[in-house]
Amino acid sequence: MEQKETNKYNRTLQQPIGSGFNSTSTSNDVIKGIDLTGKIAIVTGGYAGIGLETVKSLTTAGAKVIVPARDVAKAKKNLDGVKNIVVEHLDLMNPESIDAFAKNFLETNNPLHLLINNAGIMWVPLQRDLRGYESQLSTNHLGHFQLTAKLWPALKQANGARVINVSSFGHQMAPFDFEDPNFEHRQYETLQGYGQSKTANNLFTVELDHRGKHFDVRAFSLHPGSVNGTDLGRVAPTALFRQIGTHDENGEIYPEVAKKLKTIPQGAATTLWCATSSSLEGKGGVYCENGDIAQLDSGNINHQYDDPLTLCGVKPYSVDPENAKRLWQLSEELTKVIFTAD
């Protein structure tokens, strides 16, 4: 691809900008001084872990937050006492549920200033949605692709919206397999499934920002960090954690690893930075971490899973414009949703 075309996709922006934040920054640090009065946000999975912390911080700053939830009862219980929120039903593995949620929002005729695609599943056994699509791809990417497409009119209406896709360092576990994304012809490996779904989050961000910036809709993806106290890996077999060297034979996390993990407020910080930072004005289509834009990782970073601070950087294949365009087309085919940006 020519340099001129590459620049249109902001590849040159994929480098730290010296934001002043770091791996120890918290949600309070990032949201301090931010006024979101009159803004409307949607946060998928906003009732547990870093999603819940994100919702609390946004409402503290004055935003109204809608929390889509597959388990409405659990969401209402976890959000009890949090003001200025609305809980509505949404199942990201059910296309009809996504359409119904989006239709309800569009009927309010309200703009959507922030769409934070935070919900996700990790390291699950092979499961498929009603269309036969692998569950990690379906939940982590395809569901959010369809949701964003359906909410597009409201995002454009905001005259300055941001879409935040919560990705992961896990994108480094696998590039996107365009030949067999749903494990129909290859043996299922949950780490590969998770990795390609996170790569998809990054690629979706690249193409969404490219199409959306003309309407002042910018997109960012991010790695929240290795966070203690979330339930994301609740169904993952102990053997996987032992395999990557973070847990002992009894399934207990090594104390020296645990003390290096982020707290939930630290884990939510980068999401909030992407959603609210004025230093990102005029930027987009980039992958972020530790409250800043991440550096490209072309094999120059030594990663050690027992040292979470080394789990950083973004693989070039997951922010590649050609891969992003290809994924966009495939996503439209799989969801049967034509995402026009006009």
Key traits:
about 350 residues, alpha/beta, 8-stranded mixed sheet, 12 helices
Q: What oligomeric state best describes the polypeptide chains here?
A: single chain
Give the helices and strands as they follow along the chain: HHEHEHEHEHHEHEHHHEEH
Parts with pLDDT < 50 across at least 5 consecutive residues: 1-7
Distance between the termini: 25 Å
Spatial strand order of the main sheet: 3-2-1-4-5-6-7-8
Radius of gyration (CA) equals 19 Å
Could you walk me through the main structural features you see in this protein, from its secondary elements to its overall organization?
It contains twelve helices and eight strands. Helix 5 packs parallel to helix 6 and helix 8 (190-212) crosses helix 12. The longest helix is centred in the middle third of the chain and has 23 residues, at 190-212. Strands 3-2-1-4-5-6-7-8 form an eight-stranded mixed beta sheet, with helices on both faces. Residues 1-7 have low confidence and may be disordered. The two termini are 25 Å apart. With 342 residues, it is α/β, with parallel strands linked by helices. Helices cover 37% and strands 11% of the residues.
